[in-house]
Amino acid sequence: MRCVIARFPFDLSKSGVLASMKGVKPEPVTGESVIIGRRQYPVKQVGEVITRQDRRDFTAGEVTRAMTRLGFTCRTVPEASPARVLTPLQEAAALLGIPAPA
Questions:
Q1: Beta partners for 40?
Q2: Prediction pTM value
């Protein structure tokens, strides 16, 4: 399938991407990611390997769009849930391991 990444056309196939990523160790995922095989790779790492371009030359959205069209599962950054704020009394009770008053 023909995809445009960083203003350059690429003819990508699912088998070609699988072959390119074979033997590549995934970096820690801190943002958007793509699941290739049984591994989860950062989108920018996948883009760099398949296009042989610097990561600054393309966006994560371009690679995510291409990988989704090829049938790979793409994940976005999970939303962080707000931390529960404890009162000083509840915090002290938690440290002591006793039930806190409501």
A1: 35
A2: 0.72
Ramachandran angles phi, psi of 47, nearest 5°? -60, -40
Model confidence at 91: pLDDT above 90: no
Give the phi and the psi of residue 22 in degrees, each rounded to 5: -65, 125
Integer angstrom CA distances of residue 12 from 53, 63, 88, 96: 15, 11, 57, 58
Phi-psi region of 97 (alpha: psi -120 to 50; beta: other; left: phi over 0): left
Q: What is the pLDDT of residues 47-84, one digit of tens each?
A: 999 999 999 999 999 999 999 999 999 998 766 667 77
The residue whose two tokens read 């590549």 is 24
